[in-house]
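Predict structure. Chain length: 167.
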Amino acid sequence: MTPLVHVYVGLGSNLDDPADQVRRALDELDSLPLTRCLAASRLYASRPVGPQDQPDFINAVAHLGTRLSPLALLDQLQALEQRHRRIRQRHWGPRTLDLDLLLYGNETLTLPRLQVPHPEMTARAFVLLPLAELSPRLPLPDGRRIAELAGALATPGEIGVLPENAD
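Prediction complete.
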């Protein structure tokens, strides 16, 4: 049997009840083939990257265990985005659900459809803070630790934890 690989997925939404979109997606990740959701961060609110003429985002990170290959997992994540009616109208534009494969084990991959670690993750507080919440001592393939990167990047007011019952 294929060994279990620990992966991290970033989730984001800023349309159609974003907190609910992210919560539902976290539940749905657990039902992907050969995959289990092992842990999930709290929800975070953040300003959009890119065009500012859109609502703020709700973000989270999920820790999954999977037996899927990186591309098979990417296909499953993109299918889940489609079930949430994801429409790609403009780069960094508004969306019902965005799922990014951040880390796949300790692998470094550069494929036409996928780059792991995610190329922008170390520059984004809305990825690093929830990831540090789940696995602060987690190293990237280059040896840098998530907690150190998160501490160096976060600025007050840029990102905040969403209250438990907020929508």
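Summary: Strands lie at 5-13, 35-40, 44-46, 57-66, 98-104, 109-110, 115-116, 159-161.
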